[in-house]
Design brief:
This protein is α/β, with parallel strands linked by helices. The protein has two domains: 155 residues, Rossmann fold (3-Layer(aba) Sandwich), CATH 3.40.50.1970; 183 residues, Dehydroquinate synthase-like - alpha domain (Dehydroquinate synthase-like, alpha domain, Up-down Bundle), CATH 1.20.1090.10. Helices cover 48% and strands 16% of the residues. The strands form three sheets. It has a six-stranded parallel β-sheet with strand order 1-8-5-4-2-3, with helices on both faces. The chain has a two-stranded antiparallel ribbon with strand order 6-7. A two-stranded antiparallel ribbon has the order 9-10. Helix 4 links the parallel strand 4 and strand 5. Helix 5 packs parallel to helix 6. The longest helix has 21 residues. The protein binds nicotinamide-adenine-dinucleotide (NAD) and zinc ion (ZN). The site of zinc ion has 5 residues, from helix 10.
Amino acid sequence: MTSLHIAGNVDATLVSIIEGGNYNVVIALVDENTREQVLPHVPCLRKAPVIEIPSGDDNKTLATLTQVWQDLERCGATRQSLLVNLGGGVVTDLGGMAAATFKRGIDFVNVPTTLLGAVDAALGGKTGINFNSLKNEIGVFATPRAVIVSTEFFATLPREEFKSGFAEMLKHAMLDSCDSFSRLLAFDFENIDYESLLAQLKTSLQVKQRIVEQDPTEQGLRKALNFGHTVGHAFESKALNEGNPVPHGYAVAWGLVVEVVLSHMMMDFPSSKLYSLARFVKDNYGVFHITCDHYDELIGLMQHDKKSCAGEINCTLLKECGEVTINNTVSPESIKAALDIYRDLMGI
Ligand SMILES: NC(=O)c1ccc[n+]([C@@H]2O[C@H](COP(=O)([O-])OP(=O)(O)OC[C@H]3O[C@@H](n4cnc5c(N)ncnc54)[C@H](O)[C@@H]3O)[C@@H](O)[C@H]2O)c1
Ligand SMILES: [Zn+2]
């Protein structure tokens, strides 16, 4: 069972976890950015051996994992050691897998330093690496000893990375309630209040934790967390195939708009909330440009999504914020109609 700490001060929280664990070695895993921007702000790790991996999803590979296993050996890690993953989703995914497999599993703590990491990657037990050009193809479910979530390190995070993580919060808010949703729509990216963000993060994480606890290995309900992602992944893949990648969260934000259109068409989701979402996404994420000539390509990508079965497009849809239905089969005609409305809403 993971203990989740929503913490004003990461260092103090980490100290208490380390003291309670009787570890022989505590090792920090960072990438070059978190080594520079974050590690100096965690004094309890000042004397810890540090393993550094190169940043970026392109480096979430078997070669990097091998390097971490070798470095763990070099640092003298044993079953009684602790690995502290200090970074975004790349560090927590790869570090979690390294810890879960080294000597059949050592303890690890995730300290997410990106908003996406805090709201999504660090909690939930999924670890892994990309393999054979496939995202997260190899991995294990492994539970961190603790996850320490804080907003302490977000000030140095590039704005695009911040917004990318915020899209996952928006998703959680829509899965949760009308109140959560309208609170997030009032968020001001130009003037971030990190204290109230921490409270919003807490609500957001509770949504994910509630769903994951009921379905830890993704047999059913956890598919709710895929909301916005069936279409979002298709946008992300299209952009990537064209050599023009977009941040994951941006694709999710645009995907949310299309899937809320589908929710309106198929489940009677209220149109006023659809308009509010579309305006917020357009204002803060811009638009993903498509024409009707792209529809078949996008539908093809959705049919091949790893969450789809036998070529059927599967979406999580909402009757209202907080009223979730999973496993909805959506026809290509409905997707085309929804993409038409998306383009109208986005003015393209
Ligand atoms: N396990 C899961 O359930 C899950 C869920 C969602 C995403 N993921 C994975 O997470 C990864 C994406 O995570 P991410 O968006 O955090 O990317 P990331 O780890 O690549 O971090 C983004 C960038 O921000 C830098 N950075 C991190 N913290 C910083 C800070 N405080 N200040 C300045 N720069 C900082 C990083 O070095 C990197 O360059 C993907 O590999 C994805 O597959 C996993
Ligand atoms: Zn996502």
